[in-house]
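idk why but the lab printer keeps eating my pages so im just putting this in chat instead. protein + copper (II) ion:
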Amino acid sequence: MLSEWDIKVGTARPNTLQMTDFNILTMNGKVFPSTGPLVCKTGDKVRIRLGNLGAMDHHPIHIHGYYFRITATDGEDIPLSAQWPETTALVAVGQTRTIEFIADAPGDWAFHCHMTHHVMNQMGHEFPNMVGMQPGDVDKKLQSLLPGYMTMGQTGMDMGNMAEMMPMPANSIPMKGAVGAFGDNITMGGMFTIVKVRDRLASYDQDPGWYQHPPGTVALTASAEDLARDGIDVNAPTPRAVASAPHAAAPQRARAGAMPPAMKAHHGH
Ligand SMILES: [Cu+2]
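predcted complex ->
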């Protein structure tokens, strides 16, 4: 079940007067990483019934690694001949959508709303655009009035590690983030869970942990020898850097001038 709430930071009671600015998006009343994984066995026929209990927002629910068929709406089952394949099921306010697929690919597969702010927590719009701002010592000055104050957003939305830097009020959750399979930070929250498909299962009710990738199926960081063997110099200027360098601009203009008229006509399309 998909829901949306307005629960101000540090409070416990949802604001029922909210009309548009919801800040907590949940699956079965939980936000990732607290959402339980959807556990299945390789070869299982999986049926998921999605219902949107939200007040104002539609949810395009998307799966990684599979496509599914839409097999029923809240009206009725859809005859086999009329079912259609999707990787995203748009569940409008008040609707249900039933999806089915055969779990034939073992792994951990993200299953989430595709609305960007629906996989984040504590979202709000009552902030100025801070990208590129240089706050100077404004934090230090404000902290004498507001302990713990921190200017945010100057570098965009890369805030996955914010929870480590900023103390959180009681009864609150970080904007996004959980430790992933490789010790990295999964910068997702909210309406996000994981379909876990395994060849062997102890129980459908138990989280089987992270998928153990077969040897040789996970990309590794290239060693210096690997790079040298393949003739890759990571310090070489990128093509874009070359094109924007003043000394490189002249030969490029010369090439444009040498283009046949037919090709020039296509410029600007
Ligand atoms: Cu959504």
